[in-house]
Structure formats: C-alpha cells, structure tokens
Amino acid sequence: MKRTKNMVYKPSEAARELLLVATNEGRLYSSMIVPTIKNLAKKYRKGQFDANKAIDAFWYIADAASKQYHKDFGYLFSVTERFTAAQDMVEYFMDDIISEDA
After folding, report:
1. With pLDDT > 70 as the criterion, what percentage of the chain qualifies?
2. CB-based burial of residue 55 (10 Å sphere; 0-12 exposed, 13-18 middle, 19+ buried)?
3. Greater confidence, 38 or 101?
4. What is d(CA 34, CA 45) in angstroms, rounded to the nearest whole number?
5. Are 60 and 28 spatial neighbours (Cβ–Cβ below 8 Å)?
6. Nearest 10 degrees: CA dihedral of 20, 21, 22, 25?
7. What is the pLDDT of residues 71-100, one digit of tens each?
8. Residue range 48-56: average pLDDT?
9. What mean pLDDT value characterizes the chain?
10. Do residues 28 and 64 lie in contact, with contact meaning Cβ atoms separated by under 8 Å?
11. Which of 40, 49, 57, 73 has a 20 to 30 Å separation from 87 between CA atoms?
12. Residue 72 and residue 85: Cα distance in Å, rounded?
C-alpha cells in the first residue's frame, strides 16, 4: 500500500474512538479482524512478520470501521486518524498474533 503524507501516527481522541469501534463491532471482528490476526500469526510463525505490512493490513479494518461509523453517526475519520487507529490495532492485537489466539 502506498503511504501518503497524511499517514502519520498522531494519537487523538478520534483515533481512540475508531479503535474502540473497530474492536467492538462484532461483524468487523469476525469477518475482518480474526482472518487478519490468523494471517499475521502465520507470518510471525514463519519469521516473515513486518510491522509496516501489519499496519497496512489493519488499515483496511480501520477504513471499514470508519465507513460504518459514518453510516451510523455521520462522522468520517481522517486519514491520520485511521492510520493511527491501524497502528494502535497492531499493538492491541500483537499478543493474539504471537499466541495465534483469535
């Protein structure tokens, strides 16, 4: 995935809100987060885990959560907020990736 100049890590309340929405949304969890964790766990087990590629994988989840939030509440998260949430998701799910628990 090509990174843009707005894809920087900048902690904010909005990014934290997006992280919470993404991790607590049942449909997103079962359809996107679990397969991503399993895929990254496989890469970790083989020794091919790359944190930047993991952020790219979670970017799509943050983007889907942002679209769902926009549909429900009318607010669309910025690129920086989505990227920050994706990076936070990697940290949040790292124990699951290492232990292969999804």
Report:
1. 98
2. buried
3. 38
4. 16
5. no
6. 120
7. 999 999 999 999 999 999 999 999 999 997
8. 95
9. 93
10. yes
11. 73
12. 19
Tell me the one-letter amino acid at 73: F
Place of tokens 């942002």: 66
The amino acid occupying position 67 is K
Question: pLDDT value at position 101?
Answer: 64
Nearest to 16, CA basis, from 91, 99, 101: 91
Prediction pTM value: 0.90
- CA–CA dist 84, 12 (Å, integer): 8
Check residue 6 and report its DSSP letter. T
d(CA 15, CA 92): 13
Structural domain spans, the chain: 13-99
Instruction: Report the helix count and the strand count for the chain, using DSSP H and E.
Output: 5, 0
Q: Round to whole Å and give the CA distance between 89 and 70.
A: 20
Residues 80, 84: Cα–Cα separation, whole Å: 6
Cα angle 49-1-85, degrees, rounded to a multiple of 5: 75
